[in-house]
UniProtKB/TrEMBL annotation:
<keyword id="KW-0963">Cytoplasm</keyword>
<dbReference type="InterPro" id="IPR050699">
    <property type="entry name" value="RNA-DNA_Helicase"/>
</dbReference>
<feature type="region of interest" description="Disordered">
    <location>
        <begin position="97"/>
        <end position="116"/>
    </location>
</feature>
<dbReference type="Pfam" id="PF00271">
    <property type="entry name" value="Helicase_C"/>
</dbReference>
<dbReference type="InterPro" id="IPR027417">
    <property type="entry name" value="P-loop_NTPase"/>
</dbReference>
<dbReference type="GO" id="GO:0003723">
    <property type="term" value="F:RNA binding"/>
</dbReference>
<dbReference type="GO" id="GO:0070478">
    <property type="term" value="P:nuclear-transcribed mRNA catabolic process, 3'-5' exonucleolytic nonsense-mediated decay"/>
</dbReference>
<dbReference type="Pfam" id="PF08148">
    <property type="entry name" value="DSHCT"/>
</dbReference>
<dbReference type="InterPro" id="IPR001650">
    <property type="entry name" value="Helicase_C-like"/>
</dbReference>
<dbReference type="InterPro" id="IPR025696">
    <property type="entry name" value="Beta-barrel_MTR4"/>
</dbReference>
<dbReference type="GO" id="GO:0003724">
    <property type="term" value="F:RNA helicase activity"/>
</dbReference>
<dbReference type="GO" id="GO:0005524">
    <property type="term" value="F:ATP binding"/>
</dbReference>
<keyword id="KW-0067">ATP-binding</keyword>
<dbReference type="InterPro" id="IPR011545">
    <property type="entry name" value="DEAD/DEAH_box_helicase_dom"/>
</dbReference>
<dbReference type="GO" id="GO:0016787">
    <property type="term" value="F:hydrolase activity"/>
</dbReference>
<keyword id="KW-0347">Helicase</keyword>
<dbReference type="InterPro" id="IPR016438">
    <property type="entry name" value="SKI2-like"/>
</dbReference>
């Protein structure tokens, strides 16, 4: 019997089948109802004999069919009875020409991924669907009641009719000219005036009978409310659950009983499109509100979970921002269970592929019917719940996947990942593109601006979002500092932040005091190993294992694990099961792959309870580490920051090896959000009362300000990382019905644009009315209006140019040297027009000057500063001469108010003048006379002004072109323009009229209103978007490269680029320039690896040592990259950082040639195994995109080569099946479960 059992185990696929699989037959019967006999169409068929008519071939119907056959069934048995012909509402609508959900389904091959030639479904929140998509052929339906023209084309006026639509209005009303304004001013006809009805509303009669004493009344106006002591129920603010408020009918639909006034209570936080639910009070009667839950749990749900479930039952959008381990997954599971109950689909998105695999395993155990879609493979793609990365969902939305039709919920996990600079924009695109019928469930860590983000989502989807935020962690954290000089006697652990979140100054001071005086920033390898061993034994003694040690560098993770050769944290029983699990997990690998150095080293580490987890580890090894850690067999895990994104992997203790990281640009301290994300892994709910977080101080203790900012600082707000990509622009140009500007305006980045549209519209209407009123009131000034208007235009142009030149000149060193204290300046500042002043001080923040004029009243400051400057130009730089002895004041003004620098300089102690002025600003010294120095300065300035007025001294200015020696050609051109404009202004005679200021003031106000109107129209237009300039530049790049034509129609190159997931321009140029035509499949794979490999290598790639064809291909790709870079710079775009990286070309070439992975790693020490595997997996997606592009352009040879290249790299350990998705997963789970019941086994390999 034992032999038979062994024989069965050795069979790779189990024993051969003897009888049909009953389970398989049952599944087919239940899951394929279309095979049932009641669907047999043969019995319902009917034959109509046809008479041949060859002449009918001359005629053909170019229009699509307008009818279809509909099935009639027996209502009792469901048996098919007959067919009948019914008209189609959306005839001719397909995925190639329509964005409607009612369009005809596409072919089965495009049901999941869609096609780049498909139209996406209409995004929710966009209001242009009906007018754009109602009729594909352009035969728009006309509303013959409300949408008729009142003015015939070509006529100046029309005829208005009364409500009956037949009787014309009086002649004097009908004769009025009707334009756009007239049509908009037509009074709205009330419904009661349109139709006379004989229907009697019985309920209204009953209501009149009951309302005998005026107990019931409709809502009163504000004026009536003030005059009565009674108030209606509508005006009461009752603090009830938002769920109950939803059930209460709307205020204007029911009569209300007058009751005694009650003091209003505080409302919940809310905006127009978002509402934060209060979780401080329990949900009453939850079981009554949801009597039949779609899914139940064996534990009592928290308040925030119940609130979220109630909103999910209402098909509302939900945003849950909760602490780590609070239970956000319950909300996601309930949304999936609801869609399963409703027989619809749900999609769960995650930021990283590894997280998708883990969720697939978890949801598979919970729901069964779960699918996984990644870039390289699909599992059960027809499942009710699909798990994928956000990039996959974006591609499905753009390509019009049929999955979107039946989609009810989309769950976005880790929404705070939207802050990622490289990939955050994908979240925004997906949220914008989701159709109306899809409900959004967002899960995130706690962030400060949840309400603002939810308000944006609600506004773009035109559907309210309910925000639910937890108040505290379910397992509080305690933060410690651990210091040691390498000896046990000096070891110390000091509490610095308690579980209430309060910083302990005493604990920090003690840690600082006991820190070694001789600060060591670098420990030797032996000292660091001793530190780790002592530290871990210290934690083991305190029962603080397991531990996640976050080490913010892959190399340091490996180094730390290698140093702990003497550390053993597992029992003999645990060793046995660890080795059994490990060997079973890698048994499908080839023998030569099982002895890779990384596998052998990690096997020994895991046996001793130590794990390593970072991107350089092989994917299958990372999954082994994750599963063993979840089981509790890994006591110490060295991990990088990406492990904090894991699912349900908390530890008792989290240790920070360092709090400084390199972010790609610089070394910096961890941000609060990063620290909280990693520290949140500490504390297992239901197992630990508190979570322990320890910062390992290998050198000196960090400053308390740094620790406070990192530990207690606010997490980063959700910020928009929206950016334009060529792929987005081409996809939207291909569709045409959604504009790129519309997509930009709906982004989180442009949230203010949408929010202020109504404000701008209202203000613009007011401004236009004012302009119209001003023009009607200024007809008597018509003779001078034109000349004064011309003067305003010239003066505005002069001041604009002057402002640009001034900003440039102020950066010139020689000009700045002229601005020394004591210099006389000609200024125009507010009401101080064309006055001479002494420069007292120059500062980067302010400039103080003295002017020979008395202080003015506040009423004269009401005018715009531009008004005074224009008056100064009207006076042709004629300086102000005071009457008698002028007063004085000290002003602070910007450099733009300095008209010219006078060559004359006054010798005076300006500091004493300033001190004297500041003293006289004190109330008790305000009436004191000026000091001696100040009086001398006033006298000298007055004498100089009088001498200039009388002609004794000529007023000479510093020349900006000669004295400053300005050499900038553009600025010299602007100076010439200024001279021409100044001459025109001096020759203008309209400024010499008697009442110039009075007349010009009306012109000035009217012009200001016109400019305000233009500014508001600009703010309302797409041109005011912050990304609009970049959009125009990218469109110019696409036009120059031939991807679109001058009318933005997508050309062949553009359609090819739409097939690409990334690097769309680069790959398209490589394909269409036939760079790959003469290459072998292995060479093609090697060359395209330069687009997916991003890591910087320590050594430059050995290009001269490559085969000749590879070297030629590398040079060609470099040339294309330089050309694209040149075109972008020419169009004003700064090229990105993702340049081709050829560091892995030789490795991929060898792999595609069939070399073993172990042989490749023997000669490659620069790039770790996990990085290589990830690069080759991403390369397979690129090869698939190029294959689709080759099919699109009809290049069958290139298509075949792409398939061969893909087949060449898809083998062995690089594409080993994930342990989460493979058929081995149940057997591995069995090993993990058996460990609790098995007795002790001998240690050794199986």
């Amino acid at each position: 019997m034992q032999k038979s059992c062994d024989y069965e185990i050795q069979l790779p696929f189990g024993p051969p089948p003897v009888l049909p699989d009953v389970e398989k037959q049952l599944k087919e019967y239940l899951l394929c109802p279309d095979h049932l006999p009641i669907h047999d169409y043969k019995e319902a068929q009917k034959y109509w004999p046809r008479v041949p008519n060859p002449r009918s071939l001359y005629h053909f119907d170019v229009a699509p069919l307008g009818t279809t056959l509909k099935v009639e069934r027996d209502p009792t048995t469901g048996k098919l009875l007959k067919f009948r012909e019914v008209p189609l509402d959306d005839m001719g609508h397909t995925a190639k020409n329509s964005m409607s959900l009612r369009r005809a389904p596409g072919p089965p091959s495009e049901s999941i991924r869609g096609s780049s030639t498909n139209y996406p479904f209409w995004p929710g929140g966009f209001s242009e669907l009906l007018p754009l998509d109602k009729n594909v052929d352009g035969d728009a339906e006309v509303d013959f009641v409300n949408n008729l023209l009142t003015v015939p084309p070509g006529f100046e006026r029309g005829i208005l009719f009364k409500a009956d639509g037949r009787t014309p209005l009086k002649e004097n009303k009908a004769q009025e000219p009707l334009g756009s304004d007239a049509e908009s001013s037509v009074p709205e006809i009330k419904l009661e005036e349109k139709v006379e009805t004989s229907v009697v509303n019985i309920m209204s009669l009953i209501k009149q009978e009951e309302d005998l004493l005026g107990l019931w009344q409709k809502e009163t106006t504000k004026a009536q409310k003030k005059n009565t002591e009674n108030i209606s129920l509508q005006n009461l603010e009752v603090d009830i659950d938002a769920d109950v408020a939803e059930v209460v009918p709307k205020e204007d639909t029911i009569p209300v009983l007058k009751i005694t006034e009650t003091a209003p209570l505080k409302q919940l936080t809310r905006t127009q499109w978002a509402e934060e639910l209060d979780i401080s009070h329990p949900v009453t009667d939850f079981e009554k509100k949801v009597p039949a839950m779609a899914k139940t749990w064996p534990f009592e749900l928290d308040i925030f979970q119940k609130k979220a479930i109630l909103k999910l039952e209402d098909h509302a959008n939900v945003f849950v921002a909760a602490h780590t381990s609070a239970g956000k997954t319950v909300v996601a599971e309930y949304a999936i269970a609801l869609s399963k109950k409703h027989m619809t689909k749900s999609i769960y998105t995650s930021p990283i592929k590894a997280l998708s695999n883990q969720k697939y395993r978890d949801f598979k155990e919970t729901f069964g019917d779960v699918g996984l879609i990644t870039g390289d493979f699909q599992v059960n793609h027809n499942a009710q719940c699909l798990i994928m990365t956000t990039e996959i969902l974006r591609s499905m939305l753009y390509c019009g996947s049929e999955v979107i039709r039946d989609l009810e919920y989309v769950i976005f996990d880790e929404v705070h990942y939207i802050n990622d600079s490289e990939r955050g924009h994908v979240w925004e695109e997906v949220l914008i593109l989701l159709p109306d019928h899809v409900s959004i469930v967002m899960l995130s860590a706690t962030v400060p601006n949840t309400l603002m983000f939810a308000d944006w989502v609600g506004k773009i989807k035109k559907k309210k979002v309910f925000v639910i935020t937890t108040l505290k962690r379910p397992v509080p954290l305690q933060h410690y500092l651990y210091t040691s000089a390498g000896g046990a006697s000096k070891r110390g652990q000091y509490l610095i932040v308690d579980k209430k979140g309060e910083f302990s100054e005493c604990g920090y001071a003690t840690a600082k005091k006991n820190d070694p005086k001789e600060e060591k920033t670098h420990l030797t390898s032996k000292q660091e190993a001793t530190l780790w061993v002592q530290f871990l034994y210290h934690l083991k003694k305190l029962d603080k294992l397991p531990v996640v040690a976050f080490t913010l560098s892959r190399n340091r993770c490996d180094q730390n694990s290698k140093k702990l050769t003497s550390l053993d944290l597992t029992t003999s029983s645990e060793k046995y099961f660890i080795l059994k699990f490990f060997n079973r997990s890698i048994q499908n690998l080839k023998q030569q792959d099982r002895i890779l150095p990384q596998i052998v080293k990690l096997k020994d580490l895991l046996r001793r309870g130590i794990g390593v987890h970072h991107s350089g580890i092989l994917p299958i090894l990372k999954e082994i580490v994750e599963m063993l850690f979840q089981k509790g067999w890994v006591k110490l895990l060295f991990a990088t920051e990406t492990f904090a994104m894991g699912v349900n992997m908390p530890a008792r203790t989290v240790v920070f090896d360092s709090i400084v990281k390199f972010d790609g640009f610089e070394m910096r301290t961890l941000k609060p959000a990063e620290y909280i994300q990693m520290a949140g892994r500490a504390g297992r709910r239901g197992l630990d009362k508190t979570g322990t977080v320890i910062i390992l101080c290998k050198g000196s203790v960090p400053e308390n300000t740094v620790l406070k900012e990192m530990m207690l600082g606010k997490p980063s707000e959700l910020e928009s990382k929206f950016r334009l990509t060529y792929s987005m622009i081409l996809n939207l140009f291909r569709v045409e019905k959604i504009s790129v500007e519309g997509m930009m305006s709906h982004s989180f980045k442009e949230f203010g644009f949408l929010s202020h549209q109504k404000v701008y519209e209202k203000e613009l209407k007011t401004v236009k009315e004012k302009i119209k009123e001003m023009y009607s009131n200024t007809q008597q000034q018509e003779p001078h209006w034109k000349t004064l208007s011309d003067f305003y235009d010239m003066a505005a142009e002069y001041l604009r140019l002057w402002s640009d030149v001034r900003a440039h000149i102020l950066t010139h060193l020689k000009y700045v040297k002229e601005l020394t204290p004591g210099r006389i300046l000609l200024i125009s500042h507010k009401e101080h027009i064309n006055k001479l002043g002494i420069l007292l001080n120059v500062d980067t923040r302010k400039k103080k000057m003295q002017s020979s004029d008395k202080d003015k009243s506040k009423e004269q400051y009401e005018h715009d500063p531009l008004w005074y400057k224009m008056l100064g130009l009207a006076r042709k730089k004629k300086i102000f001469i005071p009457d008698g002895v002028g007063g004085h004041t000290v002003l602070t003004m910007p450099a733009s108010d300095v008209i010219d620098i006078v060559k004359h300089k006054v010798s005076v102690d300006t500091n004493l003048v300033i001190q004297d002025w500041e003293k006289r600003q004190i109330p008790r010294f305000r009436d004191d006379p000026p000091g001696q120095t100040c009086s001398q300065a006033i006298q000298k300035l007055t004498e100089f002004t009088q001498n200039v007025s009388s002609g004794i001294v000529s007023l000479e200015f510093v020349s900006q072109s000669k004295d400053i020696l300005l050499k900038d050609f553009e600025q010299l051109q602007n100076l010439d323009k200024l001279d021409v404009l100044e001459q025109k202004l001096n020759d203008c005679t309209s400024t010499d009229i008697a009442n110039f200021e009075q007349l010009f003031e009306e012109v000035f106000r009217c012009k200001q209103l016109e400019e305000r109107s233009k500014h508001l129209q600009f703010k309302k237009s797409y041109k005011s978007l912050s990304s609009y300039q970049e959009f125009q530049e990218r469109v110019l790049v696409l036009q120059k490269l031939g991807y679109i034509d001058s009318k933005n129609s997508v050309q062949l190159k553009g359609r090819v680029a739409c097939e690409m997931g990334s690097h769309e321009l680069m790959i398209t140029e490589v394909v269409l320039q036939c760079i790959l035509a003469d290459k072998q499949p292995s060479e093609i794979a090697a060359l395209l690896s330069c687009l997916v490999f991003q890591q910087r290598t320590r050594e430059e790639p050995d290009i001269p040592g490559m085969p000749l064809t590879l070297r030629k291909g590398v040079e060609q790709i470099k040339e294309i990259a330089e050309n694209l870079k040149y075109v972008e710079i020419q169009c004003g775009i700064q090229p990105g950082r993702d340049e081709p990286n050829f560091g892995l070309v030789q490795v991929v070439y060898d792999w595609a040639q069939g070399k073993a992975f172990s042989e490749i790693m023997e000669v490659n020490e620069d790039v770790q195994e996990g990085i290589i595997v990830r690069c080759i997996q991403q390369l397979n997606e690129t090869l698939r995109d190029v294959k689709n592009a080759a099919h699109l352009i009809g290049d069958q040879i290139l298509k075949q080569k792409m398939q061969e290249a893909s087949d060449a790299i898809k083998r062995d350990i690089v594409f080993a099946a994930s342990l989460y998705t493979s058929e081995e997963n149940p057997k591995l789970r069995q090993i993990l479960d058996d460990c609790e019941d098995e007795s002790l086994h001998p240690i050794g390999d199986e």
